[in-house]
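@channel sequence for tomorrow's demo:
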Amino acid sequence: QPIRAGANASMVNGAIDSFVRASALELPRGIRINSVSATVFEEAMGHYGPFFRGFKPVPVADAALAFSRSVEGGSTGQVYKVGY
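structure tokens (generated this afternoon):
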């Protein structure tokens, strides 16, 4: 979900998601690639809260679990969304 003054972040996030999906098809020898995309972290609300009004923050630990799942699981080309 885009936010005000966040066009640059939206561009980068979209590029990462697209790269992960496309490159998964081309990686050799069973190499896997995934990404983790989270909304704003609870731990960062003191600094970024004004930019994320109306968003439910998630703990960093939730993103860490998604990262573990992306590394230890067998999927590739996936974007693990946290808090959306």
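heads up for whoever presents: The CA atoms of residues 42 and 57 lie 5 Å apart.
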